[in-house]
Amino acid sequence: MEGLAHQIIAGIATGxxxxxVALALVMIYQATHHVNFAQGEMxxxxxxxxxxxxxxxxxxxxxxxxxxxxxxxxGVVVERVLMRPxxxxxxxxxxxxxxxxxLIIGNGTGWIFGYTTKAFPSPFSSEQPLLGGLVSAHELGSxxxxxxxxxxxYLFFRHTxxxxxxxxxxxxxxxxxxxxxxxGWMLALGWGLxxxxxxxxxxxxxxxxxxxPNMMLGILLYAFAGALLGGIDNxxxxxxxxxxxxxxxxxxxxxxxxxxxxLTVALAIIIGVLVVKPSGLFGRVVTSRV
Length: 290
Prior knowledge:
There is one protein chain. This protein has 11 helices and no strands. By secondary structure, the protein is mostly helical. It is a multi-pass membrane protein. Pfam families: BPD_transp_2.
């Protein structure tokens, strides 16, 4: 029973990381109606930037904040420079741009920072067992950080005029323009926020999986499964789906398929959702009259 409780709590901790990345995916999807395949590589680049800042002697939390700001700027630049020129292009053009962005950022990160695996420091450490030894200090701390970020994002979109303008630009750009919303810049800010959220996820997961240019590949797949499970067009649903995938992954890895085949859990969830309920648990079913 203690082992089961440990797997559930650890799954919630990793699920918080998946929820953050899933939220970033949903934000890009709402803006472009496409999935950003390079979201993981952008988060990995941000984590390497954070490590460089920390190694320069900057305190962890100051480096954490600086990395979020830098990542936000990177996201805005990517939208303005790469995505804006092809915003009205066919779907395959967007897919090509995302794949190209994945390859460029992934290989560029390896070229600049190297391909060797690096240890990333954790700001959470405790020699005392937490919750009866069921959870480590980093798992508890990273869960608190990601939950805090998700709450701040929720409050931003629900209770600020800028957040409401970004939601309007994502849901109905034409109507938003009619009431004076600068849709182009709202989409750029959405990209920036998605990059910043991904950076937080990268910095929280790096102490566990260690840092290398391919660190986020598996995590992106789990996050995508969470986004589909909760609803790719529903930010709250994607967050819930991310936590659910984290728990399911841990339980399946411990009691069903083993640690070597845990990635198949994400693939099974993706296929199952697409076959049974493509809109996800909390997504909208959109119908159109022909």
